[in-house]
């Protein structure tokens, strides 16, 4: 029986012909990394290969690593297997991995979205035979509004809070979501403050993207300074001692999970904005159709429901277990974020 071009084993997604892993979850000799989020970019590999804009990001997070960078659509060969990285549109530096060997083409998406956020390079559809797709939001209930509408809501919310003398605290993951928020906030409303973890990551990315001016919150920052301003903070700070100096404040979260009112209530958030760095239901279907692939492997998210739907539509679809978390990790505490308070 022919060995599949990519297999899922205890360490991750493995290309045996090239002896290389894609976003492995345990230390390996050689890893191709799709993007900088902690569930896809882990410490301990001997050699990392990633898009060149992702190098400063993963070095900031992982420290002294051996890493080489490639450009989008630049082919490189390992043991006669042809690889290339293509824009995933997820966050800055994010990639899909195209793998070609003996006339067979697979694409691993990592995390991705089709709508352009103004920060990352827009998603590129890549034709293939087998498509490995996340389905973090693989339910019909998930349908994103146009980004400009969401940011109109966010900036209006900030203005209203400011008029009431309250600080606006907007929670977003320190890599990706936070920079997307910063890119589209209206600085004419007021001053934008950031948590140290977000400011540190934004400093890494700022040479590549134009952002409004931000001010790091320190121990010396006073409650009076923060009144009426916008504060961008990681979700892990919610309910922490760090946030107490901002009273009176109003909280909000920007996440795909804010589609459900119950998610906002469980997290004790005052306001929810539906804004995700992942595909919604229709984007997933559009992406799959665009690849021309008949074999679909669903990974993290609503895998069983989504793959069942695809089979009903005539695709050869199955699920595979991974250690990727999708947008779930936005609501988990990061050790690095704790250290940088």
TrEMBL record:
Instruction: Keyword check for Ligase, yes or no.
Output: yes
Tell me its EC number(s), please. Answer: 3.1.-.-
InterPro entries tied to this protein: MBL, RibonucZ/Hydroxyglut_hydro, Xnuc_lig_assoc
Its EC top class is hydrolase
Annotated keywords: Exonuclease, Hydrolase, Ligase, Nuclease
Is Magnesium one of the keywords? no
**SUPFAM superfamilies named in the record:** Metallo-hydrolase/oxidoreductase (SSF56281)
Highest taxon above the source species: Bacteria
Which GO molecular function entries does the Swiss-Prot or TrEMBL record give? exonuclease activity; ligase activity
The name under which this protein is listed is Ligase-associated DNA damage response exonuclease
Q: Which organism is it from?
A: Dokdonia ponticola
């Amino acid at each position: 029986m022919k060995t599949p071009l990519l297999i899922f084993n205890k360490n991750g997604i493995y290309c045996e012909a090239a002896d290389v892993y894609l976003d492995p979850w345990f230390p390996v000799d050689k890893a191709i990394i799709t993007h900088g989020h902690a569930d896809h970019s882990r410490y301990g590999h001997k050699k990392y290969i990633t898009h060149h804009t992702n190098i400063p990001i993963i070095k900031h997070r992982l420290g002294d690593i051996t890493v080489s960078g490639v450009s989008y659509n630049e082919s490189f060969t390992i043991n006669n297997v042809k690889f290339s990285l293509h824009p995933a549109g997820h966050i800055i530096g994010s990639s899909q991995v195209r793998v070609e060997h003996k006339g067979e083409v697979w694409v691993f998406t990592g995390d991705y979205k089709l709508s352009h956020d103004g920060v990352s390079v827009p998603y590129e559809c890549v034709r293939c035979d087998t498509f490995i797709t996340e389905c973090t939001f693989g339910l019909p209930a998930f349908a994103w509004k146009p980004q400009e509408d969401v940011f109109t809501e966010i900036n209006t919310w900030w203005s209203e809070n400011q008029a009431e003398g309250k600080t606006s605290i907007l929670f977003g993951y320190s890599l990706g979501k936070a920079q997307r928020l910063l890119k589209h906030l209206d600085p004419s409303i007021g001053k934008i403050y950031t948590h140290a973890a977000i400011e540190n990551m934004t400093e890494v990315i700022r040479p590549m993207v134009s952002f409004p001016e931000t001010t790091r919150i320190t121990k010396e920052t006073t409650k009076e300074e923060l009144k009426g301003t916008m504060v961008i903070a990681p979700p892990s700070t919610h309910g922490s001692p760090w946030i107490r100096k901002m009273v009176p404040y109003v909280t909000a979260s920007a996440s795909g999970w804010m589609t459900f009112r119950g998610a906002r209530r469980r997290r004790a958030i005052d306001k929810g904005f539906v804004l995700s760095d992942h595909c919604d239901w229709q984007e997933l279907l559009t992406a799959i159709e665009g690849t021309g692939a008949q074999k679909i492997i669903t990974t993290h998210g609503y895998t069983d429901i989504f793959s069942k739907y695809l089979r009903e539509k005539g695709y050869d679809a199955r699920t595979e277990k991974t250690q990727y978390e999708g947008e779930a990790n936005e609501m988990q505490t990061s050790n690095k974020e704790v250290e940088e308070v």
